[in-house]
Write a structure and sequence with these properties.
- This protein is 29% helix and 21% strand.
- By secondary structure, the chain is an alpha/beta fold.
- The two termini are 33 Å apart.
- The structure holds inosinic acid.
- Residues 14-15, 40-42, 128-131, 133, 135-136, 223-224, 228, 237, 239-240, 273-274 line the site of inosinic acid (IMP).
Length: 424
């Protein structure tokens, strides 16, 4: 019987801890597939006392017997990918038999990175806070129908096509000052694509069809988060891809009626890196405390993440847009020890209270905050503190789906599964 593809994605502004959950549940899935984004992502996994950060490769790569697919919706920087592969090799993981790359995935060129930097510099104060990995310009070339794809590496006119695209980029870059020197990276890029060509390149849509038909389950792993989605995020302060569950269909070539569970990952609080609206942001010592205790510094850029209380209107929006069927709550341990925590239950916009995400929150909305009793650090291995259970029950009641997994620390082992106790 045909199997389903489950989707796991971020329900906030990214950095929710998706990598850890994928790694924990990976044994249930023979195939893990990334469907969008690129090296702007940084999925951190910690086990056996060692920290690993993945940018392009799916988070199932540490599990023997799991195949990891980089789907057509992903943009790949060959230089970053090769560094990642070398890093994994040094950690004792040989990816050759575990990694598949879609021929339809687009390639990030050194000039895409230069264009990203130039575009951000030009925006001045209104800059997005891009990771400067070339993501936006690469997706622009994809939709502009100029892009280079992994499958082009197998053609013999690659040099010509590369040259054409670089010349187009150079014409654009000529309008900017102080652009990074992309020529310095060209040889490294060429060497990296030569290695990329030797990996297992596949037509991922056919590969996944065969996988599902043969009864093997697939997990689609999202990057970034719902509120950074190109359509439904806090535009224009968003990334350039579809981070939502529908993106798993277009980013892998799997039809919607093959989707099974949709697991939304969220933190017990909120963070955001880069610019853009953040209704529950804490600008005080408490925000700093969460940042320090939660190590809220970007795994890709090292930037300090902005921190704030959990935002229920935003979480409910993510549940709706994605069709989330269950939630995983991360970093509950970071808030442990506080006497009181706050939950944002609604927004006040133009004198009205709403529980819905307005069209535009870039002008700012006022969060309606609800105090909740804090919880102590969890001591017993198999039980959550009662106040934390009440916090979770409040969230479930507000968004209408169960929280089935609670993470109480970075290690694989610090994870608790809960019964599905959906409130109405
Ligand atoms: P870009 O995707 O590099 O163009 O960045 C666009 C916006 O998305 C910026 O605000 C970034 O900080 C944010 N962003 C991109 N990737 C991630 C991520 O993996 N986690 C959190 N924020 C991200």
């Amino acid at each position: 019987m045909s199997a389903r593809m489950d989707v796991l994605l971020g329900a906030q502004w990214g950095d929710e801890g998706k990598g850890k959950v994928v790694d924990v549940i990976a044994p249930e899935y023979p195939v893990i597939a990334r469907f969008q984004g690129g090296p702007n992502a940084g999925h951190t996994l910690i086990f056996e006392g060692r920290k690993h950060v993945l940018h392009t490769i799916p988070s199932g790569v540490f599990r023997e017997g799991t195949l990891n697919l980089v789907g057509n919706g992903v943009v790949i920087d060959p230089i970053v990918l090769m560094k990642e592969i070398d890093g994994l090799k040094a950690a004792g993981v040989d990816v050759r038999d575990r990694l598949l790359i879609s021929r339809r995935a687009h390639l990030i060129l050194p000039t895409h990175r230069a264009l990203d930097a130039a575009s951000e510099a030009e925006k001045g104060k209104s800059k997005i806070g891009s990771t400067l990995k070339g993501i936006g310009p690469t997706y622009m070339d994809k939709t502009g129908r100029n892009g280079l794809r992994v499958g082009d590496l197998e053609r013999n006119d690659l040099g010509e096509r590369y040259g054409q695209l670089v010349r187009k980029h150079e014409r654009l870059l000529a309008n900017h000052e102080n652009v990074p020197d992309h020529r310095a990276m060209e040889q490294e890029w060429m060497d990296a694509v030569a290695r990329l060509r030797e990996l297992r390149l596949v037509d991922s849509e056919h590969f996944l069809e065969d996988t599902l038909r043969s009864g093997q389950r697939v997990l689609a792993e999202g990057a970034q988060g719902t509120l950074l989605d190109i359509d439904f995020g806090t535009y224009p302060f968003v990334t350039s891809s579809s981070t939502i569950s529908a993106g798993a269909c277009t980013g892998l070539g799997v039809p919607p009626n093959r989707i099974g569970k949709v697991v939304g990952i969220f933190k017990a609080y909120c963070t955001r890196v880069g610019s853009g609206p953040f209704p529950t942001e804490l600008h005080d010592a408490l925000g700093e405390q969460i940042r320090q205790v939660g190590h809220e510094f970007g795994s890709t850029t090292g930037r300090a993440r902005r921190c704030g209380w959990l935002d229920l209107p935003a979480l409910r929006y993510a549940v709706t847009i994605n069709g989330i069927t269950e939630l995983a709550m991360m970093k509950a341990d970071v808030l442990a020890g506080m006497d009181q925590v706050m939950l944002c239950s609604a927004y006040r916009v133009d004198g009205r209270t709403t529980e819905r995400m307005p069209y535009d929150i870039t002008g700012g909305v006022e969060p309606v905050l609800e105090p909740m009793e804090g919880w102590p650090a969890s001591t017993a291995n198999d039980q959550l503190p009662a106040a934390l259970e009440r916090y979770i029950a409040r969230i479930e009641a507000a968004v209408g789906v169960p929280v089935t997994l609670v993470s109480l620390g970075p290690d694989r082992a610090q994870t608790m599964l809960r019964d599905a106790s959906v409130a109405q």
